[in-house]
Write a structure and sequence with these properties.
The complex is a heterodimer. Chain A is of the alpha+beta class. Chain A has 23 helices and 20 strands. Chain A has 3 domains: 197 residues, no CATH class; 291 residues, no CATH class; 103 residues, no CATH class. Helices cover 51% and strands 13% of the residues of chain A. Chain A starts with a helix and ends with a helix. Chain B is 28% helix and 32% strand. Chain B contains 6 helices and 19 strands. The chains are: A alpha+beta, B alpha+beta.
């Protein structure tokens, strides 16, 4: 794709023989261009292979040296083979030339080689176009405010370089192109905003993306092993933000439901593929509803987080029998959706399939835990008694809640329950569900997030990866699925006060998750910044096809389809155009007729053999004419004076222009 | 063929414009604008960026694409305005010999308060000459126009163009001035100068022995005769002007005579004569010129040289 553009622009260079020779690129334009390219690649330096970074620095530096020392360019064959070698290198490193990472590397490789054969303006344009593609590539990695601000600055320098390509004949001082670029971008912003808001958005992707498109996202996964959740707790990246319609619910209700895990192989809990619940999962609300909207950060996963228990899925998503919400495709952009949940609920009956799945355990292993469960069951087989027995075990025995639990052996549940007794939520949830199943109570693991931090600046809740949590659900005959959080039995503070209060070793937590202390003001500052980020996400990054429809319909025009959007866009742009044209017309109205009137006057004199000399100003001309035709001295002098004033003076009133035109009409040479 | 098609198209577009002898302001009606090759490539680039944004649902990608599109739109307006209001003044040019280049100066005047950068002046398919025109100032561009044939050279239509600022679009305007320069024949030929003659001695051809020193009566006026030799007093009495005749006994004189050349074609004859004129002038000789329909009395100096060359340049065209 990139190569096609490069070829299309650059390829016709030597084929064309007629016409003006290609104009050479000036040293100053080249300097601007090389600087721009360095700036555009800079954010990716850490991820590109080292050899490619070196190639880039060498390529750009070499070209700069050539320009500075007036050396000749390396031969075309050398550059071509260097380019092919670099492409081969990318192919070997990434095993592909497609996709985000390899594409970016290829782009950087081309940008490294192209300057070495850059001599004409045409080559300069190819470099600028490569630069635009590099900027776009950077946006695929991050759309955070600082990155966007940086790329905007790069864009300005790039536009200035493009100006320099055409402005090499002298003239502009060093920063004039930059000023011009700033002016152009500022003036372009209204059009950009109109297009951004009204251009009908197409839900992507148009074709399947390479697999590496969204690598490197942290977040919940669809399986749970000892350590997976505590690993997440070490990052304070934002998972999602929530804005409630009414008051925020209490902290112990903030269970954000994610993947529900059914299958256990002795160590690992895994999801099962579920179809949409039909009829809808059978939620029986018992209390007030909670309405809220979620701004989910890209996760590259299909599931959407919702409070226990979601009532129905948002558009383009389904709800499974275990109340998981799944979108039709992975979330790879900031995604906003609205939800309704019922904190108080019952659920309907359990079917046979679910019951067998919710009781299934591996054939063997963890024999001590099984024995313990059997012992409880023999004492009191009532499910609630069994739940309480397990919770009492965690509460009364010497269990500790820690982010850095010791490693577990092969029988992970036994090892945890009877030996280490130190664990994070996934250890407790896993052991609890195992005990329940072994005692004959249908149970499953639910992963998600717990709690969140209210942002007082923006009145919303921030949920971070550090808030990741795992808990359990057991099925009780009278109430259906009931949430049991075994962590609460060990560290009740985790539910009430959050992670910071609950763990015994808070210094292992990421900075933004800690509370109190000397750096509290810094955290407050971080909150303000986050609130800004949230607005950015909510209004800018999440502005996709759905949000666009919602926003435009919300303006009071009712449901809007893409045809109407196109019309609205065209009309708005045309309106803006009319305003600009009108303003320019008014400004032009004053000066243009002045010149025309004066030319008419000169033409009349020229027919009488008194043509104006090419270097003669209006007043000098009038004086010369007056010398040979004294009778013209007065009218022509008047016209010349007025012309000079109107033309070179400050903006004049239309009446004065009309006066000049009248004088010229009356003028007879 | 393509070139002539283009030429015809230009003729059609500018059909209403007569060559002007006064400065031409570039008004909206005269300025045309179209994307350049890079402009079209840029459109393709924008489309690629758009698809990219759709595929990755990249909100900032859309913003970036739209911003670039808006900047391109903005540059369209700027490219157009870079010419708008400029006033083109025709310049004079010095006569040249065929085969040389006539240098026409054009002055671009910028009455506005914004400088105009990278304004090109182009004649036919030549490489445009670019200048910057400062605010409320002017800049001169000299076009070297090849003078291929003798006679009047009229550059005719020239093109004022600009691609500033981004090179995505080119705006241009055609202007034509009532403007010409005389092209002398190319001084070419191998023949040595004809033999010198002294006044009265030569019975050769015509009145080649006429000089400027001694008065020798009247003869009827012929085109090309110096006005200084016209008998103005006598002219008041008669219809036919009389020219005073002088014989120059002391100085040898040279007649550069068309009839001395046994060459069939007109142009080589003129070229040889032209070469002779230059040679005679540089040798410091008194020389006269005879071509069918015109004779120039022997003399020496810049004005003589110019008169002879003009006669040669306009031979067969009936003057102007």
């Amino acid at each position: 794709m990139i190569a096609t553009i490069g070829g299309w622009v650059g390829g016709r260079r030597r084929k064309k023989t007629a016409g003006p020779p290609a104009e050479l690129l000036s040293a100053s334009a080249l300097t601007w261009l090389l600087t721009t390219l360095l700036l555009a690649v800079a954010p990716r330096i850490g991820e590109l292979p080292v050899w490619l970074t070196l190639l880039f620095v060498v390529g750009v530096g070499w070209r700069g040296w050539i320009a500075f020392r007036n050396k000749s360019l390396p031969s075309r064959w050398l550059v071509l083979s260097l380019g092919l070698l670099a492409a081969a290198g990318v192919l070997i490193d990434y095993r592909t030339l497609l996709g985000r990472d390899a594409g970016m590397a290829l782009l950087a490789a081309m940008t490294a080689c192209k300057p070495l054969e850059t001599r004409s303006q045409r080559d300069g344009v190819v470099l600028v176009f490569l630069g635009y593609l590099l900027v776009m590539g950077n946006l695929l990695y991050s759309q955070d405010i600082p990155m966007v601000a940086y790329l905007l600055a790069v864009l300005l320098v790039m536009l200035a370089s493009q100006v320099m390509i055409y402005r090499q004949h002298a003239g502009l001082t060093a920063f004039a192109p930059l000023r011009l670029a700033v002016k152009m971008v500022v003036q372009a912003i209204p059009v950009m905003l109109i297009l951004f808001v009204l251009f009908p958005r197409i839900p992507g992707p148009l074709w399947s993306l390479p697999r590496d498109a969204y690598q490197g996202r942290t977040g919940l996964s669809d399986e749970m092993m000892p350590g997976t959740v505590s690993q997440l707790s070490k990052t304070d990246e934002v998972a999602f933000r929530v804005r409630f319609v009414g008051d925020m619910p209490r902290a112990n209700q903030l269970y954000w439901r994610g993947p529900v895990l059914w299958d256990f192989d002795g160590r690992r809990w895994a999801r099962i593929d579920e179809l949409p619940a039909r009829p809808p999962a059978g939620l029986i609300p018992e209390g007030a509803a909670l309405d809220y909207s979620v701004m989910l950060e890209p996760s590259n996963r299909r599931w959407l987080l919702a409070l226990d228990m979601p009532a129905s899925p948002p558009p383009r998503a389904i709800m499974t029998a275990s109340f998981q919400i799944l979108r039709d495709r992975p979330v790879n952009e900031v995604y906003r959706y609205e939800m309704r949940s019922y904190p108080q609920y019952r659920t309907g009956p359990l079917n046979e399939f679910q019951r067998s799945r919710a009781l299934r355990l591996p054939e063997s292993g963890n024999s001590r835990a099984r024995a313990l469960a059997a012992e409880w069951q023999a004492r009191d087989s009532h499910p609630e008694a069994l739940v309480n027995a397990a919770l009492a075990l965690f509460h009364d025995q010497d269990f500790r809640y820690t982010l850095t639990p010791p490693l577990l052996g092969g029988d992970s549940v036994d090892d945890f329950l009877f030996r280490t007794r130190q664990g994070f939520c996934e250890h407790y949830a896993s052991a609890f569900v195992f005990l329940m199943r072994a005692a004959g109570v249908p149970a499953r693991v639910v992963t998600g997030y717990l709690g969140g931090e209210p942002n007082q600046v923006g009145h919303y809740l921030i949920v971070r990866q550090a808030d990741a949590h795992a808990w359990a659900e057991v099925w009780l005959p009278e109430r259906g699925w009931v949430r049991i959080d075994p962590t609460a039995a060990v560290a009740p503070m985790r539910i009430q006060e959050g992670l910071y209060a609950a763990v015994t070793d808070p210094q292992t937590l990421p900075f933004l998750v800690r509370r109190g202390g000397d750096s509290e003001w810094l955290r407050q500052l971080a909150m303000a910044w986050d609130s800004f980020n949230n607005a950015w996400n909510e209004w800018v990054l999440a502005y996709g096809p759905d949000r666009q429809k919602e926003f435009l319909s919300g303006l009071g025009f009712g449901p809007v389809d893409w045809g109407e959007m196109t019309v609205a866009m065209t009309v708005t742009l045309a309106g803006l155009g009319l305003i600009v044209v009108g303003l320019r017309w008014r400004a032009g109205l004053v000066r243009q007729p002045v010149v025309r009137a004066w030319s008419r006057c000169c033409a009349r004199l020229a027919r009488r053999g008194l043509a104006r000399g090419p270097h003669e100003g209006p007043l000098a001309y009038a004086a010369r004419v007056a010398a040979s035709r004294p009778e013209l001295a007065e009218p022509l002098g008047e016209i010349a004076r007025r012309y000079a004033a109107l033309r070179y003076g400050p903006e004049a009133a239309p009446a004065e222009v009309r006066q000049l035109q009248r004088l010229v009409r009356q003028f007879r040479a | 063929m393509a070139r002539s098609l283009r030429q015809r198209f230009e003729d059609w577009v500018t059909r209403g414009q007569r060559p002007s002898h006064v400065p031409i302001p570039l008004t909206r009606r005269r300025i045309y604008i179209l994307p350049t090759r890079y402009g079209y490539a840029f459109a393709v680039l924008l489309f690629v960026l758009f698809l990219w944004s759709v595929n990755y649902s990249n909100s900032m990608g859309f913003a970036f694409t739209f911003l670039l599109a808006a900047v391109a739109l903005n540059s369209m307006w700027r490219t157009h305005d870079n010419l708008l209001g400029l006033v083109v003044h025709p310049g004079s040019a010095e006569a040249v010999f065929a085969g040389q280049e006539a240098r026409f100066g054009y002055r671009l005047e910028n009455p506005g308060s914004t400088p105009r950068y990278g304004v090109g002046v182009q004649w036919q398919d030549q490489t445009p000459q670019y200048v910057d025109v400062p605010a409320r100032g002017s800049a001169v561009v000299t076009l070297a126009i090849p003078a291929q044939r003798r006679g009047w050279l009229r550059p005719g239509r020239i093109r004022i163009l600009t691609r500033f600022p981004l090179g995505l679009l080119q705006s241009w305007s055609w202007v034509a001035f009532e403007q010409s320069v005389l092209v002398y024949p190319c001084p070419r030929g191998q023949r040595p100068l004809p033999a010198l003659q002294t006044g009265g001695s030569g019975g050769g051809v015509g009145e080649q022995n006429l000089g400027s020193e001694d008065y020798a009566g009247f003869r009827p006026y012929a085109p090309g005769d110096s006005p200084r030799r016209i008998a103005w007093k006598a002219a008041t009495h008669t219809e036919q002007w009389q020219v005073k005749r002088f014989t120059d006994q002391a100085r040898p004189e040279l007649w550069l005579d068309w009839r001395l050349l046994g060459i069939d074609n007109v142009e080589p004859r003129l070229e040889q004569l032209c070469q002779w004129v230059l040679k005679a002038e540089s040798d410091g000789l008194q020389y006269g010129l005879w071509v069918p329909g015109q004779r120039i009395e022997p003399a020496h100096g810049d004005s003589q040289r110019r008169r002879c060359l003009e006669a040669l340049a306009l031979f067969g065209e009936g003057g102007r």
